[in-house]
Amino acid sequence: MRRWPIYIAVSVLLGVFALSFPGCGSDDGGSTVPPDTGTVVILPLPTGIDASWTLDLAVGGTETGAGSTTLDEQEPGNYTIHWGEVFGYQTPDDETLVLAAGESITFVGDYLPVGGPTEGFVRIPAGTFAMGSPTTETGRDSDETQHIVTLTTPFLMAATEVTNLQYAELAQWAYDRGYCTATSGNLRDALDGSSQEFLVLDGFCEISFSNGVFTVEAGREAHPVVDLTWYGAVAYCDWLSLREGLPRAYDHGTWQCNGHAPYSAQGYRLPTEAEWEYACRAGTKTPFNTGPCLDARTEANYHGSYPYTGCPSGPWVAWTVPVGSYPANDFGLYDMHGNLWEWCNDWYGVYGGSVTDPVGPWPGRYRVIRGGVWGAFARSCRSALRFDAYPGNGSLFGIGFRPVRSTA
Hints:
Oligomer: single chain
Number of domains: 2
Radius of gyration: 21 Å
Distance between the termini: 36 Å
Structural class: alpha+beta
Mean pLDDT: 89
């Protein structure tokens, strides 16, 4: 098995650590709230809907509005929000939060579609494709043996990598119901007798936990969540299933997905490696779903100083960008190249030969990650590139994920 460095070059990695990345709870030097008042943030999701709301104020009276709003210099005390109806969506329940002096509270109105899949997912049809890379593809690795794969089950796939705000909101939901435990340093499991670590909160993460509340660093809400283990990605999938009344896909004792039969799982899960590449390619056979080149200016977030062979160089952002910052592929999926590696369901192993609905080996040592990262060279962002990571390592700030769910 290949064990070359995940961030491609030691010199690049050292340069990354020399930069000032925003960590959990960092002070960006912005405006401060007077110590005797606080801030109330109102955030209806998805952000594209025009959701109205009425807020009962701590001092009496109400405030009304629509869409996302930040109310500064509010008096400490109890605040209750009443969400308005939006056609085609379930109306969130009323919620009461307590605002302390010098602190902030966030009301998240999670509007779920009525009679349809969770907002933000796209349907990927069943199909057959050539997985891996041809021997003529520049920069290919020996474990990319090209072979024909047939996927017989359509699936829903999150259009973007899971964001800080999405993860924090669902972690709060799970924490309030006893499905997980948290400290200022980490988030851990509390299902099936497990205490597996999910999220490292005192590293490069942009989510914090204090006094029973998860918060996201200002301005980082739409960035993909980092510093999470494979188990933390799996837990999010299970929490999403529980919230929607679906059976959990994973046993937290064995960490098998539906008894090693992921395609027939009813709940949300991580994509198999084959599903991930099929979805990334979206019918293409070129090194990238954008064609023979990947433009760091307009198509993906990677180290643009190291473009693919014969392609122009571009900028290097040197950190994540908000999800959906670049155009989607033909399936409607964003950031399948670059930004963050993405956890897959499979253990890493050797593959080859025509196969239908592959599930990967069981058991294994490393889980598959796909897609490349903001610090990767272009060759490592190719559709066929395979890599692996230890599933319990939450200090890898270059790995994210997106859930899927099998559908008819």
